[in-house]
Description:
Distance between the termini: 85 Å
Low-confidence stretches: 4-18, 20-36
Strand content: under 5%
Helix content: 55-70%
Order of helices and strands: HHHHHHHHHHHHH
Number of helices: 13
Largest sheet: none
Amino acid sequence: MPETARSSLRHLTRATLLRVLFAASLLPVLMENAMSETNGDPLLEAARTGDTQAIASLIQQGEAVDPRDAQRRTPLLIATHADHVEAARLLIEAGADVNAKDAIQDSPYLYAGARGHLEILRLTLSHGADLKSTNRYGGTALIPASERGHVETVDTLIKAGVDVNHVNNLGWTALIEAIILSDGGPRHQAIVKLLIDGGARIDIADKDGVTPLQHAKARGYGEIVAMLEAAGK
């Protein structure tokens, strides 16, 4: 092998070795940080990784199902964050509180609705979800679901009975957010239709007195404008 090639190989090997050693030095820190987030609680940790076998075993051993981590998240909320459906199912069926809020006022129900985690949302709805509960912005689960374009989630929440005309702390309804925080595309057009059909009032303006129709016109959302105008006749 030429000397230049041997030299390159040595440098490559040395660099690779340094990276491995550096990563190895960080591993205990990373593991400690992950464990500190869950306070070392085995159920919180199993929920974080979605380990259904460990969750089932811990439940069977009589482990409390709603311990809290440093952010006051329960195992169910942690599983919901990662959309670990089966882990969430085990916890809910064992009695985990679907309305338990963390330090920033998220609950498994509210988070599943906002993020469009439909399977977990349906589980929370069938196990006592508080439809009137609100997030840190004073909004129901329906409002962020409408903003983020989760069509089926919006449909599910409306059918469950969530108030379609609830106004959050910003002065916005689900209908307003589906307009002003969207691109006016097919998903949000479908959501606007669902909201109107579900009883959304098109005359509720924002804090500045601007109505959903005025917002839609200002953004050039022709299809949404047409729906709102038809609803107002």
